[in-house]
Amino acid sequence: MAALGWLTPRRRSATARSVLAGEASAEAARKSTQELEHVQTAGEPEFPVHGDDKAAAFFDLDNTVMQGAALFHFGRGLYKRKFFDTRDLARFAWQQAWFRLAGVEDPEHMQDARDSALSIVQGHRVSELKSIGEEIYDEYMAERIWPGTRALAQAHLDAGQKVWLVTAAPVEIAQVIARRLGLTGALGTVAESVDGVYTGKLVGEPLHGPAKAEAVRALAAAEGLDLTRCAAYSDSHNDIPMLSLVGHPYAINPDAKLRKHARRMDWRLRDYRTGRKAAKVGIPAAAGVGAVAGGTAAAIALHRRRR
Q1: How many Å apart are CA 85 and CA 90, to the nearest integer?
Q2: Which of 34, 158, 215, 295 has the fewest Cβ atoms nearer than 10 Å?
Q3: CA quadruple 297, 171, 18, 26: dihedral sign
């Protein structure tokens, strides 16, 4: 399925597979947005600049726009629909609990989740997963959107600019989330399909790290954007390549490595997780964080029952 993978967080330059993954994601995103119409209200904030058609905004998804990882929420929905058994659900739940508690991606968890998800959807139709994605968004994702980050995205839309999600999550799921939030579209991991059926393989590699930067670069070239006038938002140091591409990088709910890098580079910081953490960086926290503690406790309890 489009993508369910993650790479290790170590720095490395873009490879041929990164370029392939980025270009495939950009092409999928452009095709999807041809079917969408967006009504945008004009506004004139100092930033973003109203009417600048050479500028756009690129938002990471997990822990930036949405609490937790989209892949794990998607896994819960697939379990409910009997795509896999209880043992797999326990693993998904434990990985999600770790992600929420640590606030960072664990490479082994991400790799395991990718391999599991690809095997689960192999042989299923792309249209089936798209339809299920709509239902799963309503069930598990809608209430986990960060209000503060959503407001940042809306500011770009109000300025007449396009706003794209950029995520290692499956492109089909990413497109559902983007459409529900009224965004322009999404760049996500592209899974190989033949005659509308998933083969269990990826096109290139997961849209992660350098691959995200390649996807943004490819989309900017196709859309005629000036990256020095664009903005990018992320919580993870893995996205430093993408953030470094644009003229307006933002660290949102940053992990420790990204926070340190952002301060050294004088990038803007926003933290919407708790009032305490937000106070540390001198900015207001968004209200309505959601029931993170309850979800984490349930995930841990499920894991313990399986042991």
Answers
A1: 9
A2: 34
A3: negative
Torsion angle (degrees, nearest 10) of CA 178, 179, 185, 188: 50
How far apart CA 278 and CA 116 sit, in angstroms, is: 36
pLDDT in tens, 197-256: 988 888 878 888 999 999 999 999 999 999 999 999 999 999 999 999 999 999 999 999
Tokens of 34: 């041809």
Catalytic annotation, pick one of 60, 239, 255, 271: 60
In 10 A of CB 85, how many CB atoms? 9
Q: Is 62 a catalytic residue?
A: yes
Question: Which of 52, 53, 62, 138 does the annotation list as catalytic?
Answer: 62
Q: By C-alpha distance, which of 160, 123, 118 is closest to 3?
A: 118
Burial of 171 (0-12, 13-18, 19+ CB in 10 A): buried
